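Record Amidohydrolase, 372 aa.
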Amino acid sequence: MNKNARPTIKEMFAHLHENPEVSWQETRTTDYIASLLEKTDARIKRFDDCTGLLAEIGSGHPCIAIRADIDALYQEVDGVSTANHSCGHDAHMAMVLQTLFTLEEKLANVSGTVRFIFQPAEEKMEGAWKMIEKGAVDDVDYLYGLHLRPIQELRTGQFSPAIQHGAARFLEATISGEDAHGARPHLNKNAIELGAEIIQMINNIHLDPMVPYSAKVTSFHGGGESTNIIPGSATFSVDLRAQTNDVMAELTAKVEAVLEAVSKLYGVDVEAEVKSDVPAAVLDSDAIAHMERGIAKAVGADALSPVLQTSGGDDFHFYTIKRPELKASMLGVGCDLQPGLHHPKMTFDQTVMPDASRVLVETVMSLLAGRA
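=>
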């Protein structure tokens, strides 16, 4: 690609931000990324049955992969439900594209392959599995990701060499009973009242306070348009978070015990199904060490922050579940992000994007220099 013809990182971000697409529907996003990469020497692989793509530059060993998530959330913004990049994936794509442009020039006389994974459906916790199925990490030695961090975790100019994400588990549950007339509440069990009791019992779960965790009902649907019908059935969702996989197992067992207790006490079927499940991060010290060197080289040692522990989850960690020998870490990018990730009006300091890209570049070069 003619360097002068490349869009700037700010221009790429602006385009991606203005054209968000939800999980598994990132067709225009994939086309846009491909249109930029087709003007480089990158080897591109697209897929017939899903969005997203792979791109490679360089040749030989080692093989280093960098992953960018490409999907947006679907949420209400100013009273309208729409696709919205409120998790920073637009910035992730722009930074990783800039990293590819820069590394293409640097790898001319260096042995090593860099693979770029533009992954769909992170928000559904499904895209990593699909990319694994497509062979995205089959021959990869090191895998890196990145994520913007809220102001409460990192300030602008700070970078963490790893994010210790917690485990996340999402349940979908049903209360199954019969409706009754509003004048005859003794003839059924009110599903809304049962839901309120389930919420209260979940709120009363107490585990080791030294390990962060949370359990909360995030949706509840019961009843209809007729206000004189007592609903016997309802559906609801439960969001579980825990900093370790062991505590997640304990928390899940407690929630299942709550549902079983309510079911037995009131004689109503209450069943739950795990719809999505993300493990806690398992960090690799070697991958972290190279990221630390990349941060120090790109932006200075003063910008280096400790490994960041956060209760959020990311399907990035499925790559190491499937490939335990894979050395992986995720860069935490301080950018004064507020009010918070997934807030419909999320904003962040966009001036950090070039620095974050340079960190990725220097991390890759540190690895290649170490293997030379």
